[in-house]
Write a structure and sequence with these properties.
It contains seven helices and 20 strands. By secondary structure, the protein is α+β, with helices and mostly antiparallel strands. The two termini are 21 Å apart. Among the domains are: 89-171, Trypsin-like serine proteases (Thrombin, subunit H, Beta Barrel), CATH 2.40.10; 232-355, 2-Layer Sandwich (Yope Regulator, Chain: A). Helix content is 22%, strand content 35%.
Length: 365
């Protein structure tokens, strides 16, 4: 099991869009990243991150609403990664042990073991593999793996309020979609939700209808500004980040959440529309084993000097934060606030490490 988990960790990717996060996995035979359609829906490009590369933009080239499948072009050469093999759905039985691998709630590379409760549970006219392995938001699009290390399904949805009631799309549906798309790999295509005909923008009838059955099909807009655009305060925050020099798409980690790095400091920005506050937290360093009294004295003195910012501790990490009411932020005030926070975060991070022997924050790689 440990060997299987380690092999999959290198081929699993985290996916982030304007509206949320999910999981994908790379198949070298097809040179594609597989995920759920609902993870990337209405986006031509999404942010992806893996063990072998940091955040990059990936193109969504295939989407299938009926089977909830989507394919992405890998943003870097991933051919050298371990080759994942697709299993056979027909040999699965109730009670078989399986692994669900993904990123639930942002917890990177989480593997949960369980059994198949029902191998052919019919939902919405399709067969699904019902499993009791714990899957949660963020697992969507990740692989369901057999004890032989084979991909036997794509983790797709859960029943809210149920006790470990998870459902994975069987691998035979995935194989069919991969083989259908393979001849036109690289082109943007959709599967007709009515007749499953593979349609490209060039083969649409009269601009928006399936040439086989006439069903209306809507491709995501090419103009990124028209793709499910962010609005209000989130739009202002992204405009500020771009003005400072950050890529808003790469900074986005979910709905109303962003993350950037300045020097050695990592800054997380979040907006809560329920309490109207924009909170920016710069995670600097860990508490040292010795000299904590001197460090506290320094932080308290600096707090007295800082205007609109403050030091705090979070689970043993020193954090420099700022908070602003959403009605008080605009492009000018926001740029000034963020630039000042980023600059001070980079400065204080170096001071804490060099002068107070604070260990750098431990991160998963």
């Amino acid at each position: 099991m440990q060997d299987i988990i380690e092999r999959y960790h290198n081929t699993i990717v985290q996916i982030a869009t304007k509206s949320g996060t999910g999981t994908g996995f790379y198949l070298s035979d097809y040179d594609l990243i597989v995920t759920n359609n609902h993870v990337v829906k209405d986006n031509r490009k999404v942010t992806v991150k893996a063990r072998t590369f940091d955040k990059k933009l990936a193109s969504v080239v295939f989407s299938d609403e009926k089977y909830d499948l989507a394919f992405l072009l890998p943003p870097v050469n991933m051919k050298a990664l371990p080759e994942l093999q697709l299993g056979t759905y027909e040999v699965l039985k109730d009670g078989d042990t399986v692994l669900a691998i993904g990123h639930p709630y942002g917890l990177n590379y989480t593997a949960t073991q369980g059994v198949i409760s029902r191998v052919n549970r019919v939902q919405q006219g399709l067969k699904y593999i019902q499993i009791d392995a714990a899957i949660n938001p963020g697992n969507s699009g990740g692989p369901l793996v057999s004890t032989d290390g084979l991909v036997v399904g794509v983790n797709t949805f859960i029943i809210k309020g149920g006790d470990n009631l998870g459902f994975a799309l069987p691998v035979n549906y995935l194989k069919e979609a991969l083989e259908q798309y393979k001849p036109i790999r690289g082109e943007v295509a959709m599967r007709c939700p009515s007749c499953s005909t593979l349609v490209t923008e060039q083969t649409l009838e009269v601009g928006k209808y399936c040439p086989n059955c006439g069903t209306e099909i809507d491709f995501p807009k090419v103009d990124e500004n028209q793709e499910a655009p962010v609005s209000g305060i989130a739009k202002t925050i992204e405009a500020i980040l771009e003005k400072i020099g950050f890529n808003k798409d790469l900074a986005r980690t979910g709905q109303n959440k962003w993350e950037v790095e300045e020097g050695s400091a990592k800054i997380r920005i979040s907006y809560n529309p329920e309490n109207y506050f924009i909170i920016s937290d710069a995670f600097l360093a860990q508490l040292p084993k010795q000299g904590i009294k001197e460090l506290y004295t320094y932080l308290l003195r600096e707090n007295y000097k800082l205007n609109g910012k403050f030091f705090s501790l979070h689970e043993g990490n020193v954090v420099l934060s700022s908070m602003i009411y959403d009605l008080d932020i605009n492009l000018e005030s926001g740029e000034e606030m963020f630039r000042d926070l980023f600059s001070k975060a980079d400065h204080y991070d170096s001071v804490l490490i060099d002068q107070f022997n604070c260990p750098p924050i431990l991160e998963e790689r």
